[in-house]
Amino acid sequence: MALAQFNTLETDKRFKNPPKDDSSGLLNLAVKDIGSKTIFDTPETSTRLGNKLKIRVESVQLAKPSVPANDKLSLNRKTFPSECRERMVTYRSRLMLNVTWSVNDGEEVLEIREAGQIPIMLKSNRCHLEKLTPNQLVEAKEESDELGGYFIVNGIEKLIRMLIVQRRNHPMALIRPSFGNRGASYTKYGIQIRCVRPDQTSQTNVLHYLNDGNVTFRFSWKKNEYLVPVMMILKALVETNDREIFDGIVGNDTGNSFLTDRLELLLRTYKKYNLNSQQETLAYLGDKFRVVFGATPDMSDIDVGKEVLKRIVLVHLPDNADKFRMLLFMIRKLYSLVAGDCAPDNPDATQHQEVLLGGFLYGMIIKEKIEEYLQNIKLQIQSDITVVWYMTRVFLRINENIGQKLQYFLSTGNLVSQSGLDLQQVSGYTVVAEKINFYRFISHFRMVHRGSFFAELKTTTVRKLLPESWGFLCPVHTPDGSPCGLLNHLSHKCKIATVASDVSQVPKALTQLGVLPADSFAAGKIVADTLRFWKVEGSHGLPLDLEIGYVPPSNKGQYPGLYLFGGHSKNDETNILGPFEQVYMNVAVTPEEIENNVHSHVEFTPTNILSILANLTPFSDFNQSPRNMYQCQMGKQTMGTPGTALVHRSDNKLYRLQTGQTPIVKANLYDDYGMDNFPNGMNAIVAVISYTGYDMDDAMIINKSADERGFGYGTVYKTEKIDLSQSRRRGDPITQHFGFGSDEWPEAWKEKLDADGLPMIGVKVEAGDETSDQEGQQLTIKYRITRAPLIGDKFSSRHGQKGVCSRKWPQIDMPFTESGMQPDVIINPHAFPSRMTIGMFVESLAGKAGALHGIAQDSTPWKFNEQDTPADYFGEQLLKAGYNYHGNEPMYSGATGEELRCDIYIGCVYYQRLRHMVNDKFQVRSTGPVNSLTMQPVKGRKRSGGIRVGEMERDALIGHGTSFLLQDRLLNCSDYTQTSVCRSCGSILTTQTTVPRIGSMASIRCRRCAVSLDKYDGYAADADIWEDGQGKKFVGGDDTTTVAIPFVLKYLDSELSAMGIKMKYNVEPR
């Protein structure tokens, strides 16, 4: 089977979906939405308005990265990302604001202000790499298939990770107990909708149901919450009356007494406000929110009210009549939820979620910072604004460096925002795009996170894998541990819709199907099916990426309706199904499953539900599911090939496998994604045999000669940065630079070092190169450290079977087969029964057959079944090559030459060397920080923590006959403490130190066994009476002694006593 030819350009298309628009459209939309700021030069207490200044940002301009203007000597003015990586600076360009202002509505004056340098995303339309061919990318010191999509901040590649948020513009029915905390009469019922403006900023609106049947409208503005009666919003939107509102909500369901009774109450209770017309309601709203929205004195209350509706209420709808109808629909849905006619929507289901892209978040922050800039100008106005030079002086006072704030956001991931941007977290937005290997790098661009807010929740419901996620989120690729279920990865065929669909022809198409603007669901299924047919056919103007979600009427099911979605950031399958419509469709996984009149769609292939990494696990359908999860994690920790342009990178740490190979057994997608450009492991001859005892507990024995031939040989690149400018204060003259001073230096040094104090490199200096000493202030040194496998280094197969190298065994002592083949790796048979990684057995068979016949074997999951088994398929290949059908072979002892008394399973398995190496783990500690709760040493090498002696270490110490060392490790050097225990009651919690008397020392007494002096009947000598420090005197309780225990035992005792469980200790006599 010939290997597929790798096409870099084709691979580039697979990994990303580049935007078609070549303009900063969203940013200009945001600038228009900000509007203008009006300022008066009179104090607020004054009755007259004074001079009026109107200021706005007309447009923004973002240049491409270039060298600073003060650098006069550079001939090439372009700045490329590779230079920023090597110099450890930020890849950024200038942001220019076109600010216009006018006084008293006079002529507008244009001011062009520089708003700092903002970081630029690689391969965006402001990046120099955008349209370069693979050859040109290599000339620019980049990878030939550079993906882009990340930023370079201070030389570090940073990525804004995709967040899961509520689906836009869709009212969701929720039952949350926290809703009842809003007020005395509030209940747990609510309808929540996340409305998204054209510039992708959002505003969440919530309808709350009250005990008396009323409904209130809640919104958040600058991190403060406000509650308004929903009737007030309805009356302010359009000129309407109670009859229209009643008919709009009830519709044809006039016999629903539950609905009509509450609606009647809603209309009656609103009468107390005595607001009848739209103008009166707008004026009332404007009066209440004038201060909150910072309205100017020249705005009337009605204008302020209109601004409130525009900024807050259902901001995705531009027309007030549409907002009115949507609010009526939401009220009807809320009453249905309370009555139990419809079920609540699940916010954790993919059906009600979408992805917040990094570019959208970046634009939201830029918009807010521009708005803050205008607000700061408003605060600076203090004197006569009619003076010509006054505005110039105001501009100089304002810190307009938006780029610095964006760089802070990217480098820390912290969001500093006045409004909160309608998001639930303030940190964790960015991650380092680590290039440990290529698997790790591409996974960053496919991961979606639920949010750091949910990581702190005690409930596990948000982590569960729901059926709605089928085909959109990979069921395998999620970390084990605390982020499990919160950090997911997109399926490899799942795409994010980044361009809004054109839905202008939808109403016309619906009209052709006879759809009336009424609540009639009888023909809903027919309409939905016809629309889907037209969508696939491309007729009637329906876009291919339009999502048609038909929810049929049901008893207490989801609220029915025909929902059409055509917005951004929608999870969109290549077969053009969205997560909302998929729930109510019958989709067959394989063509064999199709049933007539039942299934309407079929998957292209069953592997479409898996992520890129999960697809690369060979024969994953034969493994226990946790092992496939482990491989997805370990594949990203492998010492592989991070890239081809390593010489031009200055990463803090890079790992490289020098002897990488293409696997004999690999999935079809391996070639489709061009993974051979970045090999991640080696083909090893693996024998499953218990040999020498050095292979117990997942340890593995490596053939010493295979090690000398380069098995697992790797390199670590480390970078150290030295900056002399940090040793002087800003403004001080440069007194230090790299090079030899006037002192006498040994001649031997000068033979090896150049005049700059650095090794000679022999670079030709040409005209225009910088030669002054002032530039020699920063130095980056890159070390190349060779790392041959050592005892204790970690290895793994592609099936989650990890183990450490326990011994390098001489080749002459290794067992051998009849053909003279000796294994590279020996693993213990006990690794298989409990892990159930049958896929590794199959890979061993397939690899052996592939090596014998010289072919690459396809390991794509679900290729085999009960009738056509892989054992038969690969067994036939082995038979044709003259080998055992089942992969077993007789082997002979390397030490004695005698035949081993059993057939040994031996084959070819692809092995990975993980980045966890002994040379990086060495750790020394005598004393250091301890946990304040348990008094045990803290964890972590970076925190000067201790080394954990676990179960395997315990076995090793006992096996060496040094069991008493366990007391030293687990007690003396851990949380050794001396405490008092009462012999009578056996408690360590009731003992205490007495108050010392004059001339005597303090002693230890037990409060539980002692008797209060007031209640003591007998005679008590002064020596027997003791005081507890609070003025109370006791007699007795002196039968105590001091014992040595681990402090964590005392902590356990106190925790159990809090639950009413007493621990009693028996103390032997002295």
From TrEMBL:
A GO BP entry: DNA-templated transcription
One GO MF term attached to the UniProt entry: DNA-directed RNA polymerase activity
DNA-directed RNA polymerase I subunit RPA2 domain residues: 525-569
Example of a GO cellular component annotation carried by this entry: nucleolus
Keyword entries, A-Z: DNA-directed RNA polymerase, Metal-binding, Nucleotidyltransferase, Nucleus, Transcription, Transferase, Zinc, Zinc-finger
Catalytically driven reaction(s): RNA(n) + a ribonucleoside 5'-triphosphate = RNA(n+1) + diphosphate
Localization terms from the record: Nucleus, Nucleolus
Record domain RNA polymerase beta subunit protrusion: where: 43-386
Highest taxon above the source species: Eukaryota
A UniProt-annotated Pfam family: RNA_pol_Rpb2_6
Enzyme class (EC, first level): transferase
Chain segments carrying region Disordered: 1-22
Stretch forming the signal peptide: none
Stated family: Belongs to the RNA polymerase beta chain family.
Descriptive protein name: DNA-directed RNA polymerase subunit beta
